[in-house]
Design brief:
This protein is mainly β. The protein has strands at 24-25, 29-31, 55-57, 61-69, 73-74, 77-88, 100-103, 108-110, 112-115, 118-128, 132-140, 147-157, 163-173. Strands 3, 5, 6, 9, 10, 12 and 13 form a 7-stranded mixed sheet that branches. Strands 1, 2, 4, 7, 8 and 11 form a 6-stranded antiparallel sheet that branches.
């Protein structure tokens, strides 16, 4: 039930109850700015962030949360690389875009424009080994041309060399 629209929706879904016990990644949750520091969350629900439907006003920061599963340990740690690409969907424009990312765990990285309105953000992570590793960060893309954008989040396990990715669309509207 959505009280602001006074509408109710119902749906059915098929659930595959055979869980894989190998390397993988959850869907990426979009939301408000992720918290910048604090205790390491055990699961995505432990991150204090307001979920979003994927519509942001120009200049807003985009919060991201996802879980990595079964990264291969290297001693007591897991080592992986996060690669985020933001690009305009055909018909949308992205000019002079620079992106700054701030991890909930203290990383500050600068994205780089690679032409044709695309920005890439790439950084390594080295964290204590766990079955589930939660990643929470804020991507600040600054002022952009309103339109639709595609964000792809790729995670590479640096020990097993396996990769996985999720893509999602978001929209920027005028303030």
């Amino acid at each position: 039930y959505q009280p602001d629209t006074r509408r109710i929706a119902r749906g059915f879904a098929t659930v595959d109850d055979t869980r894989s016990n190998s390397f993988g990644m959850s869907d990426v949750l979009l939301g408000s700015r992720a918290p910048e520091a604090g205790a390491t969350p055990a699961r995505w629900r432990d991150v204090k962030m307001t979920p979003s439907a994927g519509v942001y006003q120009n200049g807003d920061a985009i919060g991201l949360v996802w879980e990595n599963y079964q990264l291969k340990p290297d001693g007591a740690d897991v080592k992986y690389r996060v690669h985020i690409t933001v690009e305009p969907v055909v018909g949308s424009g992205l000019q002079n875009l620079s992106a700054r990312i701030k991890s909930a765990f203290g990383n500050n990285e600068l994205g780089r424009a690679i032409g044709q309105g695309t920005v890439e953000i790439d950084f390594p992570r080295n964290v204590p080994a766990r079955a589930v590793t939660v990643e929470a960060m804020t991507v600040d893309i600054g002022k952009v041309i309103p339109g639709k954008y595609m964000m792809t989040v790729e995670v590479t396990d640096l020990v097993s060399k396996k990769k996985t990715e999720r893509s999602l669309e978001f929209r920027v509207v005028e303030r």
